[in-house]
Amino acid sequence: MTLFQIKALHTLAFLVLSSCVVVVLFSGVWNRITVWTWLSIGMILLEGLALASCGGKCPLTVMAERRGAIQPGVADIFLPKWFADRIFPLCGTAFLVGCALVAWHLASL
């Protein structure tokens, strides 16, 4: 796989997982807990396992580094540096807030 292909795949994965974060957050805000909420939570948790299994790095970042990417987080994804550097704090916070709201709604049933 070329570095371009890895970056394209990594960007696609980012878009899918970011969509999952948005689904969880909106599910919690609007109390609309559906099968999509649970699938999205599962996808994010699977990504967490993938990160944990690679020492905190995305497996696609590891692949990109092996292909010569010098600046992980920027050189392995098609996103501006300022945004790529803030993905985990932004998405992580939104996901945790969404999960807390979902849990709150479920506890109040």
Which key features would you list for this structure?
mainly alpha; single chain; 5 helices; 109 residues
Structural notes for this entry:
The protein is mainly α. It has one domain. Helix content is 73%, strand content 0%. It has helices spanning 3-30, 35-53, 59-66, 81-84, 87-107. The radius of gyration is 15 Å and the shape is elongated. It starts with a helix and ends with a helix. The mean pLDDT is 92.
How would you spell out the order of helices and strands? Answer: HHHHH
Mean pLDDT over the full residue set = 92
How is the main sheet built? none
User: Can you tell me the number of structural domains?
Assistant: 1
Strand content: under 5%
Structural class: mainly alpha
Low-confidence stretches: none
| Radius of gyration using CA atoms only | 15 Å
Note the gap between the termini: 49 Å
- In one word, what is the shape? elongated
Number of strands: 0
What share of residues is helical? over 70%
Number of helices: 5
